[in-house]
Amino acid sequence: MAKINLQELSLEQLRKKEKSLKMFIGVFIPLIIGLFYFVLRDYYTGEEFNWSILTIAICTLGGPTTLYPELRAVQKEIENRS
Question: Which of 25, 32, 45, 74 is the 20 to 30 Å CA partner of 16?
């Protein structure tokens, strides 16, 4: 996917992009917490370990990790224009 040049976007578009990135990160965090809750619950109760949920939980950590640098770049561009 082509990377968008932040200097070409208007301030309004940057704020919309910042809001959407924050929303995506906000969706990922409860999802991560929920998945790791079920993994840890099974571990502490001594039930059979569910490797598929653990794999999904670990892969879900990549969402905010990928989005955070882009969010910081958008926030920095907004700060530079203000």
Answer: 32
